[in-house]
Amino acid sequence: MPPPALRGRAAGVVLAAAWLVAPALAATPEIAWEPPLEIATGDAERGPWRMNESRFLHVDDPTVAVDDAGGVAVAWADQAERNIYFQRFGPDGRPQLETPVDVSGSSNVFSWLPRLALAGESGELVYLLWQEIVFSGGTHGGEIFFARSSDGGRSFSVPRNLSQTQAGAGKGRLSRHRWSNGSLDLALGPRGEVYAAWTEYEGPLRFSRSTDGGETFSAPLQLAGGENLFPARGPSLAAGTDGTIYLAWTIGENARAGIHLARSTDGGRSFGAHQVVAAGPGHADAPQLAVSNAYLHLVYAESPDGPLRRYRIRHARARLEDDASGFATPVTIATGDDLASVAFPVLAPDGDDNLYVLWERFPEAGGRPHGLGYATSGDDGASFSPAAVVPGSDDPALGVNGSLQGLLMRKLAVDPAGRVAVVNSSYADGVASRIRLYRGRRR
Q1: Rounded distance between C-alpha atoms, residue 179 and residue 191, angstroms
Q2: Which residues of the chain are under the pLDDT cut of 50?
Q3: What is residue 386's three-state secondary structure?
Q4: pLDDT at position 392, please?
Q5: Which end of the chain is more exposed for a tag (fewer CB within 10 A), N or C?
Q6: Which pLDDT does position 35 carry in this prediction?
Q7: What value, to the nearest 5°, has the Cα angle with vertex 60 and ends 36 and 73?
Q8: What is the pLDDT at residue 135?
Q9: 367: nearest Cα among 320, 407, 337, 397
Q10: What CA–CA distances, in Å, run from 152 to 76, 123, 125?
């Protein structure tokens, strides 16, 4: 069962480290694992919510990207410092920066749930998007900030506020009293374009684009939500090599919510009418998109019995040569077996028609997630390996999975050669919080 929204005390966060080990199936890639790397550690204290005066002392909210040379970049939130930090690691696992770089530089305001993207021949272009809990007069605090680096992350531009709103940007409303922070996404286009999407507590879905590498951004477009409409939630962006932009989201305040999809063929200046891609009898949530060589892929969580019940992980794909206009019937990747629920999937392809899917495991109804599940496909999503637990991710000593602010995250990255990277935070109340990176490679 997905966790409660950020109200009061949450139970914690566990290491989500997955260098995916696939079962021995002919169509499933096998991954050679490497020892995990500990990226950051902190206290594990979380007091009552008092806006930016809250006593939150823990590390959290990691996200990851990989470059084509086998390097890995990681960004995360330090709640005690209220900042977003960045570090990168070489193929040998050694840190490339002397100390983690403070990207947000806003120690009086919480910065949460970043998204990270790399570009350039060696990943020297770094783009970061995150949610900052700025209270500017509305009922909920939240703005969307962006920063970029052209020197591999050694330095970053002054953060830019893309949202400029009082409506609580970055919040994905499930109901009036329950929402997820981190309702935002970042993607890069084939010619260096930068795309950002986010939702607001009040309901709208916004999209903004940059055609100059993140130096300037367009005024945000409103694509869904708004007054007297269902609130948009959990946007996911993907861009094709032909420049087509795909944007998926779900909606709140609706027990039969489906996954909505819109596309732009003019570089993000406009989007066509959205279609409901996954419309079952139950509740669909937390979509994630990815583009492979031949397909647009979608994964999401679905609860046949409605919101906050027992979810399963579903996958659907549409052929790019058919303009990705028709999705095949969704298939179930994981049901959780004896778990209370599985939810919040993350999807990534490599360059050889292999797919990797990661998700949160909920052992107890109403509890925090503990451990990660995964599956892989070696035939571009035609079939998947049986669901399995990421080794070590359910270690009781680590605590429970994060993020404590909301589980709309991107914790998985895969490069074209099949090098896989997963990050997650762990939280053992009163003991320690940790962020770890697990790396592996397809065999």
Answers
A1: 35
A2: 1-26
A3: coil
A4: 82
A5: C
A6: 84
A7: 55
A8: 94
A9: 407
A10: 16, 6, 6
